[in-house]
Amino acid sequence: MLGLLRIRVVRGVNLAVRDVRSSDPYLVLRMGNQKLKTRVIKKNLNPEWDEELTFSVADPSVPVKLEVYDKDTFSLDDPMGDAEFDVQPFFEALKMDLKGADDGTVIRKQVPNRQNCLAEESNIYLVKGKVVQDIVLRLRNVECGEIELKLQWVDVPGAKSSLGK
């Protein structure tokens, strides 16, 4: 294990309607064989989860996949789109020598393209000496919706530090 990737699931924006007028959305995040879920937010197309989910990371080349579902009581939960993102650029930023860099320094930018699910430019930057990344993902396989996330790395004492530190 290299360390922990903390993902703050901030909110969903303009999610798809799957019930009569609204949806009861929740997120499932997967990284390799790990699977984490947020709580269900009832009757809301713009849910504010503000939840932290943490993966242990052994291989930074494994993408994080997310799926949004509408919770149903008497039938299978309805899919509300999916997305994935590559954590490799985040790990590369972690390896950089950032001693003396100011708070708010942008280390790297990722731009949306056909190969990723980014809805807008994603900055990797420094906050209180920690590398963080804000990500807005456009959901695929659905008519509308975006998910906002914030990534942060957590060092684990005794973990294989291949981050070059």
TrEMBL record:
Compartments annotated for it: namely: Cell membrane; Nucleus
Could you list this entry's UniProt keywords, alphabetically sorted.
Answer: Abscisic acid signaling pathway, Calcium, Cell membrane, GTPase activation, Lipid-binding, Membrane, Metal-binding, Nucleus
Q: Name one GO molecular function term.
A: metal ion binding
RNA-binding found in the keyword field: no
Per the record, the domain of life is Eukaryota
Please list the residue ranges annotated as the C2 domain.
1-100
Q: What is this protein called?
A: ADP-ribosylation factor GTPase-activating protein AGD11
Task: State the organism of origin.
Answer: Platanthera zijinensis
